[in-house]
Design goal:
Blueprint lengths: L11 H7 L1 E4 L2 H17 L2 H9 L12 E7 L5 H11 L14 E5 L7 E6 L14 H6 L3 E6 L13 E7 L6 E5 L2
Parallel strand pairs: 2-5, 2-6, 4-5
Antiparallel strand pairs: 1-7, 3-4, 6-7
Helix pairs in contact: 1-3, 2-4
The structure holds adenosine-5'-triphosphate and magnesium ion.
Magnesium ion (MG) binds next to helix 4.
Length: 182
């Protein structure tokens, strides 16, 4: 598929080397998230992503969940991204943000992952508030993929290999910039 900003990459490696993408509509953000989901969930993308993002480290098998830390201001497109991602992972029901329930849980059937979690930490002030929520166990299980909004609120408990994506508003109403942190 054509990517929103640059030439379509042939591998995930290119995807991360490019480091940032611009989208011009929520539809495009969803499409991009869906592309990424396919790369990660259905192939050995997990290993390739880890290898690309942390080239100086040896490629390794995951010891914890695949975590996408989605950071950015209100309305910058984090939930929109999650909707595209989970739709591509085969979730058919309506995907809404877990602002009040904190964690939503989806069963997915992909090569590498069995469950997807959508976490919204907007209401969390400190990681401590999460004691008893089960989040730590969720983050520790390599069969999970976890998408987190407002991840900086719980940065302390996030594994080092979490993939951080920063969402920013562009210069026009429907533009957004998605930047991978390396
Ligand atoms: N290029 C774009 N990508 C994503 N969303 C866009 C884009 N252009 C416009 N939008 C709109 O911006 C809004 C993004 O809302 P969304 O709920 O995804 O933000 P959020 O980052 O999750 O915010 P919050 O921090 O409140 O949870 C939606 O109304 C969406 O339609
Ligand atoms: Mg949101």
């Amino acid at each position: 598929m054509a990517l929103p900003y640059r030439e379509a990459p042939s591998t995930t490696q290119y995807l991360l080397i490019y480091m940032f993408y611009k989208t011009t509509s929520s539809k495009q953000t969803k499409k991009f998230a869906g592309f990424l989901a396919k790369e990660i969930l259905d192939s050995d993308g997990r290993v390739r992503i880890a290898g690309a993002a942390w080239r100086r480290r040896a490629i390794r098998m995951p010891k914890n969940a695949l975590i996408l830390a989605l950071s950015g201001n209100l309305g910058s497109g984090k939930t929109t991204f999650v909707q595209g991602f989970l739709r591509a992972a085969g979730i058919r029901k309506k995907i809404t943000s877990p602002t009040f329930v904190l964690i939503k849980n989806y069963k997915i059937q992909t090569e590498n992952y069995k469950r997807a979690y959508h976490v919204d930490c907007y209401r969390i002030k400190k990681s401590k508030e999460l004691l008893g929520s089960g989040l730590k166990e969720i983050l520790n299980n390599p069969e999970n993929t976890v998408l987190i909004e407002w991840p900086e609120r719980i940065k302390k408990i996030l594994p080092k290999d979490s993939i951080w994506i920063k969402f920013k508003h562009g210069e026009k109403e429907n533009k957004r910039i998605l930047k991978f942190k390396q």
